[in-house]
Design goal:
The complex is a heterodimer of chains A (270) and B (259). With 270 residues, chain A is α/β, with parallel strands linked by helices. Chain A folds into two domains: 9-55 and 189-269, HAD superfamily/HAD-like (Rossmann fold); 84-187, Rossmann fold (3-Layer(aba) Sandwich). Chain A has eight helices and 14 strands. In chain A, strand 9 (158-161) and strand 10 form a beta hairpin. Chain B is an alpha/beta fold. In chain B, 33% of the residues lie in helices and 20% in strands. Chain B contains eight helices and 14 strands. In chain B, helix 1 (28-37) runs parallel beside helix 8 (247-258). The longest helix of chain B is centred in the N-terminal third of the chain and has 12 residues, at 75-86. The two termini of chain B are 20 Å apart. The mean pLDDT of chain B is 94. The chains are: A alpha/beta (270), B alpha/beta (259).
Amino acid sequence: MAVWGERLAGVRGVLLDISGVLFDSCEGGGVPIPGSVEAVARLKQSQLKVRFCTNESQKSRGKLVGLLQRLGFDISEGEVTSPAPAACQILKERGLRPHLLVHDDILSEFDKIDTSNPNCVLIADAGDAFSYKNMNKAFQVLMELENPVLISLGKGRYYKETLGLMLDVGAYMKALEYACGVEAEVVGKPSPEFFKNALQVLGVEAHQAIMIGDDIVGDVGGAQRCGMRALQVRTGKFRPSDEHHPEVKADGYVDNLAEAVDLLLQQVDK
Amino acid sequence: MAARRALKAVLVDLNGTLHIEDAAVPGAQEALKRLRGSSVIVRFVTNTTKESKQDLLERLKKLEFDISEDEIFTSLTAARSLVEQKQVRPMLLVDDRALPDFKGIQTNDPNAVVIGLAPEHFHYQILNQAFRLLLDGAPLIAIHKARYYKRKDGLALGPGPFVTALEYATDTKAIVVGKPEKTFFLEALRGTGCEPEEAVMIGDDCRDDVGGAQNAGMLGVLVKTGKYRAADEEKINPPPYLTCESFPHAVDHILQHLL
């Protein structure tokens, strides 16, 4: 067992990233990461509180949970914190009518949002919908606004699909920021509000919680800045250079979620 | 700043300086002849991401300018020469019309990315391919980083936003090869045997032409044609060496004061 395992003492709640930790997505579905289905089950049987905290913005929460259940995971919609519902709340509070640059699979999350005569742009992981034409349309909407507002569901650089690494919404967010001279408002990890909201629902304090993710900046760095501990798994988008990241150092690096859960449960049993 | 020496080379911008779209600046052909009558070397330098040298040359010939292909140095030329120097095989995200300027360059099994203005290539799958090459350590060479440009149907995204997207995703910086980069001006002088202190640049873009050239050690002359707008000369510090009405006036100044 890793020496740093002692740093897990006092953990009462666990936030789990989904993509790259539970499964790797691919065209039309996904593949569970070996050991992760059982690891989630063991975690939920323990006395630790568990919540899923994802930046998934290509599919609705319902579609994501449905897929995970088909892959064998014990998970329900109410256990997932994801950026689209959080964004909808912000849109309503501020009277914002978004032009949506998003994937068709997440449109249902915005069913109750007025999108006529847009006064902001909302960008999510649109996948193939990130065409020049669609990017240009979002750009033109922003350029015509007196006070351009750009809302981005997460700002990840890339994520892993079975075919390889794919550009994430952050890259396209940066493109629009650069083109229009604006700064996006990020809803999702690593924004502190997003983590705090997940902790609140979980009912634990930041210092009692640990985040497990495959993104050294978005998951690990973001959680640590909120006062949580964080582990990086060597699955999903993990790259060996992450362990020597110039700014972020995880509280521990584990081969996969199964190893993380082993270590956590050993601490709990002490 | 190094001591100024006798003038040996004149760099001239094309669109906005010698001609505006398909019309020559009045008196420009004749002024170019007078300049050539002196002993200076003349080079034509331009930021283009879609017009090959051949396209540029045809337009200039139509406007009756006496210019040969080897006198033209463009941002595409600069990208090509960087590709050659680095001995890399680029994935070319450039407009099809620019491809002739990369003739003979190996592009199979790419280990570099060259990016210009290429809306037809700026979509998810192609950008993912470029992104994966960059993560594997391929250099990113940008023709320029313009934010947007004007089309008949309104503003449209330039290459800059897509370069920025790739830079962010891979935590790297692109090598930008066009004006106003210092290396662009130095490369344009290569083969002339001249030092920057022996050269002057004439152009209508205060930042990219004049500011860029002056940063490289040349004199910069701003002409009030093309994209020039009132008070542009106040945009850079130090200010342009000279601001004058048009290319023929710039030539007169050079012939009278700099030779």
